[in-house]
Amino acid sequence: MLSARLILDKDYVISQVDKRLYGSFVEHLGRCVYTGIYEPGHPMADEQGFRRDTLALVRRLNVPVVRYPGGNYVSGFR
């Protein structure tokens, strides 16, 4: 049987971690895009149909990068 060993030393630093590593993605399943991010005609939507309230909440999370499409869209497709 194979085994592995991991030793962590919080004082041993190789380099800074790039903040983009902590980005997020938009999954095109459920209500994430439609009625979540993009909803033309909604009172909080801008002239292109994007929800300003959702944008404000994402900014509060301080997400450095948002990928679209992201995740695994195919797993929810029928």
Q: Could you give a short description of this structure?
A:
The protein is largely without helices or strands and 78 residues long.
* SSE pattern, N- to C-terminal: EHE
Radius of gyration: 19 Å
> Which whole number gives the mean pLDDT?
87
Shape descriptor: elongated
Class inferred from helices and paired strands? little secondary structure
Characterize the structure shown.
13% of the residues lie in helices and 5% in strands. It is mostly loops. The chain has a two-stranded parallel sheet with strand order 1-2. The model has no long low-confidence stretch (mean pLDDT 87).
Which key terms come to mind for this protein?
78 residues; little secondary structure; 1 helix
Break the fold down into its secondary structure elements and pairings.
Elements: E1 24-25, H1 52-61, E2 66-67
Parallel strand pairs: 1-2
